[in-house]
Design brief:
heterodimer, A: 272 residues, alpha/beta, six-stranded mixed beta sheet, four-stranded antiparallel beta sheet, 10 strands, B: 300 residues, mainly alpha, MetI-like fold, globular, binds adenosine-5'-triphosphate, binds magnesium ion
């Protein structure tokens, strides 16, 4: 453990390959009447095994950034590379958790999770075993057959999370995956997320409104400005990879980083 | 550096079990609210007694008018006389009912298949949409009943012109509802499908089509009642069989009881087919039906 702390503090991930490379990215949405600059000259590199959290006010282009990296939104200016190749079309070698859970209302929990496997033509048995494991992990046991409209918002988000994790993607893009959870469940999901990240070595980019969540989960925290979205600062608090609600929250590095981010986001925007 | 293996060794204890236990708080058996057969029967009874009372009152009024001979019997026969005709002529009436039912069902099925196929084409091809959709909308204003004589000239007195007329009338609501349903898909679902590397076909089968079913089914319910109209009108224009043909005969002979018996049978075909489509809807999209209840029964 001690070694990890030192490593984490002194040599932040340097030698690993860049997985996501975004350079001078600008995204404008044009409509007949107006033009919205959602992202303005954003540059960000995410390396293998990193957990990058993005915090920023509502409407600053966080969702847009994730969708651009996933290849879901065409028409940007600048460079977006994933796994070293330019992103020109929807990327399938990723897991994407949408801000609104995007569940199929006619499928039960388990079948919604297994959609990932069906669409990819994964081995059915393996997928089912993994789905059951994820259902247990996220506390959805007993709800396997429940339809989305029978679930709470938080439970729907957990289903979406399971679906994004089912195929063990190398890169996980998560758009406020825990936004609709109550504080307690959210903490549990944060602990779980941290563990999944450490165990699988997945590269994660997670968007959040919550400052504690950003610092608790991120090995690096990107803070964005209000629209047009720019990156105002990137923080690396140097916390050990293994987080723990008991100690991490009291760690001076945690509190300092949280303070700093709150300051950057402005006193008016500190939800939770 | 912190490799994955290090971390895995690090984290072999603690959090997972703790979390599993903690999140178990909401794992109580969820109230799925599965409606039992008895529950459904109760709902049906609850929903249908009011319309049945109204229907009963109408019959009573009809019976009263005929009994007091307020209107001559050759205009409005007594319910008894109608029933008598239905029984005595049951073989003949059954045969003609069967003919009209076959025409209606075939017309409806063809309209459904062609309509859905057309809708898929319109939704997936911009060119098809631009060139075909305005024409389909325009064709809807042509009074299709006026086409019936032409169809008889072309296809004679057999089943074909009736089926074609039923198709022409039932086609429009199918196309419109299917196009609306297929277009109503949440764009985020399509994006999600794209990140799964799904082919267009898989996306259609697993996301788009099931999502379009609720709207499509409402269109089909309208279509099935219109198909009856198409078949009967086809029979009016030129036929030697079917309820439409019998209706014309009865009208020529001023046979009011037969007229009324015939009319009741025509309505029955429509009602029965409508209920069948509604049943299919319950089977196909229980997730939808369970939330909004049945159209027929929800009115209460
Ligand atoms: N498809 C689109 N067409 C037009 N404008 C869009 C589109 N998508 C996003 N925008 C605009 O781009 C800006 C950024 O949107 P985005 O959804 O990325 O914000 P966000 O940071 O995710 O906000 P939130 O935290 O509320 O989810 C907004 O002003 C939004 O109106
Ligand atoms: Mg967003």
């Amino acid at each position: 453990m001690a070694a990890t702390v030192l490593d984490g503090a002194t040599t932040p991930s340097v030698a690993t390959d860049p997985i996501i490379e975004v350079e001078n990215l600008t995204m404008r949405f044009r409509s007949k009447r107006s033009e919205t600059v959602a992202l303005d000259d954003v540059s960000l590199t995410v390396r293998a095994g990193e957990f990058v959290t993005i915090a920023g006010p509502s409407g600053c282009g966080k969702s847009t950034l994730l969708k651009l990296v996933a290849g879901l939104t065409p028409g940007f200016e600048g460079k977006v590379h994933l796994y070293g190749a330019p992103v020109t079309r929807p990327q399938r070698d990723i897991g994407f958790a949408f801000q609104r859970s995007a569940l199929l209302e006619w499928r039960g929990v388990r079948k919604n999770i297994l959609l990932q496997a069906e669409m990819r033509g994964m081995d059915r048995r393996l997928a089912q075993r993994r789905a059951d494991h994820l259902i247990e992990l996220t506390g959805l046991t007993g709800f396997e057959k429940a339809l989305p409209h029978e679930l709470s918002g938080g439970m729907q988000q957990r289903v979406a999370l399971c679906r994004a994790l089912l195929h063990e993607p190398r890169v996980l893009l998560m758009d406020e995956p825990f936004g609709a959870l109550d504080a307690l469940t959210r903490e549990q999901m944060n602990v779980e997320m941290n563990r999944i990240w450490r165990e699988t070595g997945t590269t994660v980019v997670l968007v959040t409104h919550s400052v504690p969540e950003a610092v608790y989960l991120g090995s690096r925290i990107v803070v964005m400005s209000p629209r047009p979205g720019r990156i105002v600062e990137t923080l690396e608090p140097g916390l050990p990879d293994e987080r723990d609600y008991g100690t991490t929250l009291r760690d001076p590095r945690f509190t300092r980083a949280a303070e700093r981010i709150r300051g950057l986001l402005g006193a008016t925007h500190t939800p939770e | 550096m912190t490799t994955t293996e290090d971390l895995r060794a690090d984290s072999s204890d603690g959090p997972p079990t703790a979390t599993a236990r903690a999140t178990a708080k909401d794992t109580a058996v969820p109230g799925r609210g599965r409606t039992s057969a008895w529950g459904q029967a109760v709902r049906l009874a609850d929903a249908s007694w009011r319309p049945l009372v109204v229907l009963g009152l109408l019959f009573a009024g009809w019976w009263f008018v005929a009994w007091r001979e307020l209107v001559p019997a050759y205009l409005i026969p007594s319910p008894g006389a109608v029933l008598e005709t239905m029984v005595s002529e049951r073989a003949m009436l059954l045969e003609h009912t069967w003919v009209t039912t076959v025409e209606t069902v075939l017309g409806f099925v063809i309209a459904a298949v062609v309509g859905v196929a057309t809708a898929v084409l319109l939704v997936y091809s911009k060119t098809a949409e631009k060139s075909l959709y305005p024409l389909i909308l325009f064709a809807q204003v042509i009074p299709k009943i006026a086409i019936a004589p032409i169809l008889v000239v072309w296809f004679g007195f057999g089943l074909t012109p009736k089926i074609i007329l039923a198709v022409l009338i039932a086609f429009f609501p199918v196309v419109v509802s299917a196009v609306a349903g297929l277009r109503s898909v949440d764009p985020e679902l399509l994006e999600m499908s794209a990140t799964m590397g799904a082919s267009r076909w898989r996306t259609f089968v697993k996301i788009r089509f099931p999502g379009a079913l609720p709207q499509l089914m409402s269109g089909l319910k309208v279509a099935v009642t219109l198909a009856v109209v198409g078949a009967v009108v086809g029979e009016f224009v030129g036929a030697d069989r079917g309820l439409g043909f019998v209706l014309l005969l009865a009208s020529g002979n001023l046979d009011a009881p037969l007229l009324f018996a015939d009319l009741i049978l025509m309505s029955l075909i429509g009602v029965v087919l409508f209920v069948l489509v509604e049943l299919a809807e319950h089977l196909l999209i229980p997730w939808h039906a369970s939330r909004r209840g049945s159209v027929v029964l929800a009115a209460s």
